[in-house]
Design a protein that fits this description.
alpha+beta, 6-stranded antiparallel β-sheet, 5-stranded mixed beta barrel, 10 helices
Length: about 450
Amino acid sequence: MSSDALLNILTDLIKQAKKAGADAADAIVVDGASIGVTWRMGSLEHLERSEGGDIGLRVLIGKKQAIVASSDRSKTALKELVERAVAMAKSVPADPFIGLADPSQIATWLPTLDICDTTELTAKQLIAKATEAEEAALAVKGVTNSEGASAHWGMSQVAIANSAGFHRSYQSSGSSFSCSVIAGDGKTGMETDYDYTSAVYVSDLRPAADIGRIAGERAVRKLGARKMKSGRYPVIFEPRVGRSFVSHVLGAINGAAIARGTSFLKDSMMTEVFGPWVDIVEDPHRQRGTRSKPCDAEGLPNRRRHLIDGGVLKTWLLDLRSARKLGLEPTGHAARGPGSPPGPAATNVYMAAGNITAKGLMADIGQGLYVTDLVGQGVNGITGDYSRGAVGFWIENGELTHPVHEVTIAGNLKSMFRRLTPASDLEFRYGIDTPTIRIDGMSLAGT
């Protein structure tokens, strides 16, 4: 359906809501088409194609709101959607912080971001890519089984409108290949690992055969893992796992958590939470960015900004509600789905590259741990206490030696952030990205 047709549906829905008694309303529709396949041990295990989408309506009566979503866009269904939403809004408790944006706050134009590839991958093409990935993985000596290779293509269209005067839409696309395999056997030990690639443009994906080969090689090199002696050591986190620290920052500066007082960084605005050599940047307008978007879900403009600048925390992530609760201006970070209210979220966030190579970052380590996988969710967002299982390789005299497993890494994120040093090997792959990271003085529990 064209963007004009979608916006016309939303505009009419908002008019119906106001006629039915709403003081204000907004609506969102997310349309899409996707194909996904899973190929395992030479056979097609799963094939799914979906088309369609959902439409969501939020109505506000005074300081009360209700949200209703539906996949049915018939006139009868939309009329019932309006009636349900208005009836619900009349019966829920009031929230003094809800409300649409003021007309002066909404975006008046949307940047062009090149986030939609018109290339559509067919099921046959996706099966070929998944097959290629798995065959490359199984060809790696030591790989004994496969957990499957997957390939996915999708395209979506988002339209947002509200009674404050915002009416905009945009399209995006994404494709991915992945592979996960097992090395070893029941007698000598078994290890698993994976690799994947995702991109807006099909042409930007890494080759499927490389994904499979790397997955196989990663699994094999973990064979023969040993336990390590407990102690305090420097720890290197490869980029695939190091990016979890950026996720912890984003959770800690989320405006909803700050407003509730449930963040270990709640008192840290404009203070140095990292060393002065660390910058964390959000860039929602990055061309071909996997999570790029031209505005937020409440119709407010978004922009590139330093979340951490020279180690200093510069901003919270604020939607309208959390901004009002904190007495601050919104930052254009609202995200939502058709059936949910807006909430703060960031997009295309990365820790800037440092000045030392990944090899140089490890060169002076006499004994330490190089982490390739983290296990469990032992992170307390209120206190910052950190405890997670880890898998990786032991470092001796600046070089990787044998694989290590059954390790627990413990600390507190506040002190960990202060001791964190990024390498120079940043690549944009996941939407949240970091270079290789080093944190000194970590408590490791092994034998």
